[in-house]
Amino acid sequence: MSQNPTHDAAHDAARFRPDFRLDGKVCVLTGGTGVLGTVMAHGLAQAGARVAVLGRRAEKAEAVAASVRDGGGEAMATPADVLDEAALAEVRERVLAEWGRIDLLVNGAGGNQPGATLSPEQSLPDLEPEAMRGVMDLNFFGTLLPTQAFAPVMIERGAGAIVNVSSMASLQAVTRVAGYSAAKAAVDNLTRWLATTLAKQHGEGLRVNAIAPGFFVAEQNRALLLNEDGSLTERGRQIIDGTPMGRFGEPDELLGALIWLLSDASRFVTGAVVPIDGGFSVYSGV
To answer: Which fold has domain 18-214+249-279?
Structure first.
C-alpha cells in the first residue's frame, strides 16, 4: 500500500478525468466543404486537431481551411473526390509529408440524388436505378474508400479513431428517401464490421464509430424543410412533430459527440452509432 494517500488521490483524479482534447492529432475530414463539414472543421481545430479539409471543390476546400486558420487553428485544403482512389492516395502522401502522421478520419462525405427519392406523386417503379447506384457509391463507397486509404497509416502505428457519418434515415423508415436510407444503413453495418475487424486484427488502439444526425437544415434539404419565408413545409412540420425537442438541430450540436468519439475520452467505445436527433429515434408518436 502507498504511504502517500494524497498522491494516490491525485493520481486517481487524473486517471478518471476524461481527455476530450485532440491536441497534436491529425484529422482527415471528408465532406469538409458542406455546411456541417465546415462546422466540423472548426470544431476539430478548436479541440486541438490539425485538419485536412477534403472536398471536391478546391476553392471551397481552401476557403474552409483558410477560415480555420483565421480562427487560430491549423488546417490545409486537400481537394479530392472520395470515389477517386488515386486522388485519395495523393492526399494521404501530402498529409504525411506536411504533418507526418494521420491519427483521425471523419467520413463526412455523403448526399442524395433526386432520382433516388420519391416525390409525393411517385411510387416504387419511379426510382431510378442509376440514381440509386450513385447514392450508394457516394455514401457507402465514399466511406469505404477513404477508410482504405487512410486507415493503413493508423494500423501501422497501432492507434487511430474513425468516425463515419450516418443518418436517422438508416435507423427507421423515412418515407420517400429510398437510396439515402439504404446507403446509410450500409454505412452503419460497415461501421460495426470495421470496428470488429480492426480491433481483432490490429488491436484495441483502433476504433470505428458513427454519428447519426437527425434533421439539420443544410444545402441539400432546405427546400424540403422550409418555405422561402422560413416557415415549415408540410414535410418539415411532420419532422418537428416527430422530434420531442420540437426543433431542427444546429450544426455545432454535432461537435460534442464527434469530438468525444475521436478523443481518448471514448477509448473503450467502438462500433457505436450515436444518434444526435433531439429524440426523433426514440419517439413513438404517442
So the answer is: Rossmann fold (3.40.50)
